[in-house]
Design brief:
Distance between the termini: 46 Å
Number of domains: 2
Number of helices: 14
Order of helices and strands: HHEEEHEHEHEHEHHHHHHEEHH
Structural class: alpha/beta
Helix content: 55-70%
Radius of gyration: 26 Å
Strand order of the largest sheet: 4-1-5-6-7
């Protein structure tokens, strides 16, 4: 049959291009394994901080009620059905350290237990007799709502046990920065800005592959052109495209009602540095592609890594490798958009300034230089080295 002949011909041609076949078959399983490792084979554990100011109260039988310590213990005991903890509880040094962790998204929520929490549970407080706790978080961070809900379950259990029945208590919520005044649309804009920049990965990789496929490099070799000269020229054009796209995205968002809480100039600088990092990744991808089609296919895997593991699409737990000073270094910090997501949120949603995103800008600068250097080295070996 003619159809079978087409099947045989198509199969032979596909086998001649094993790279695209491997990408099509292995990409999704790769992410399944990756997400299994990220979640520890179960579900996400949300980091929650507790500032326990509660003063224990002595009881008539000689024991004492330490409701604050009980809240901390109860939060640590909130678990999934498989026994995995839902919350990872820690106690920060002070409120300033806690706010910094919330801004960096190293923690999902902060719970403040007041000094008279135990006293109010026993009806010994003045004024409003209800015991109360305060939840603090970035309301634009999706993980905050989940962490708060789990924390409330723990507080409910402590209150019920302390008074012997379900009793009303007061819950106060404090929005970090200006996150409580943001609309749902405004909360999405930082992630959309990151997406607009990450798309440069495709255009950068394809621009280099286009010159390779067209045979332009064979003629350029006669001019003793270096890999740095060629890739710098390509990167300059791609950078201009990225800046134009980012400004267009900003402009449309502002026209539709978006309001930045911090200086737009700081956000533009972050976007520019992120664009350089993404272009660098694109140059590395292009070193393994000799056609535009191959470059497009090869760019899909790093594109998914940059999008899904950076937190641009939806929040992910941050596997911490180590800490340096007040900052945590995570497993995905080698991805430029990881720092762009945090920096954009700080500036656009929380009103941060240049100084507040110095850590993220430092990472973006280092990663941009690293990926470009690797791209130059690989390109020289794969495309320009004399044969």
């Amino acid at each position: 049959m003619r159809a079978l002949s087409v099947v045989r011909k198509t199969l032979v041609e596909q086998l001649r291009d094993p790279w695209s076949l491997v990408l099509a078959v292995s990409t999704a399983p790769f992410f399944v394994v990756l997400y299994f490792l990220i979640t520890g084979g179960g579900s996400t554990t949300y980091p929650v901080m507790v500032l326990d100011h509660d003063r224990p109260i002595a009881l008539a039988d000689g024991s004492e009620l330490a409701a604050g310590r009980a809240v901390v213990a109860a939060m640590a005991e909130v678990k999934y059905s498989n026994g995995q903890p839902m919350l990872r509880v820690s106690e920060p040094a002070d409120r300033a350290a806690a706010d910094a962790a919330l801004r960096d998204r190293d923690a999902s929520a902060l719970v403040i237990v007041p000094a008279d929490f135990s006293a109010r549970l026993l009806g010994r407080g003045a004024g409003d007799a209800r015991a109360g706790v305060t939840f603090v978080g970035d309301l634009s961070n999706a993980s905050y709502s989940i962490a708060m809900m789990m924390g409330l379950l723990a507080v409910d259990g402590v209150v019920s046990q302390a008074v012997g029945a379900e009793a009303p208590y007061r819950v106060d919520e404090e929005a970090l920065g200006s996150s409580g005044a943001r609309t749902e649309f405004e909360n999405y804009v930082p992630g959309l800005l990151v997406i607009s920049i990450v798309l440069l990965l495709f255009t950068a990789a394809m621009a280099v592959a286009r010159e390779v496929e067209a045979g332009t490099l064979s003629r350029l070799k006669l001019t003793r052109m270096s890999a740095f000269d060629f890739l710098f020229g390509v990167s300059a054009v791609q950078f201009a495209i990225g800046v134009l796209g980012m400004l267009a995205t900003f402009g449309v968002a502002v026209a539709l009602g978006f309001r930045s809480q911090g200086p737009i100039a700081a956000a533009i600088v972050v976007g520019c540095m992120t664009a350089l990092g993404v272009i660098g990744v694109g140059l590395v991808v292009a070193c393994f592609a000799r056609t535009v089609t191959r470059a497009f296919l090869a760019a899909n895997l790093p594109f998914m890594l940059l999008m899904f593991l950076s937190g641009a699409v939806f929040p992910l737990p941050k596997p911490v490798l180590f800490r340096t000073g007040a900052h945590a270094v995570g497993l995905f910090d080698f991805l430029p958009p990881t720092h762009a997501v945090v920096a954009f949120n700080k500036i656009l949603s929380l009103g941060a300034s240049f100084g507040d995103v110095a850590w993220e800008l430092g990472w973006l600068t280092a990663l941009s230089a690293l990926y470009f250097a690797v791209g130059v080295w690989l390109f020289h070996r794969t495309h320009l080295r004399a044969t």
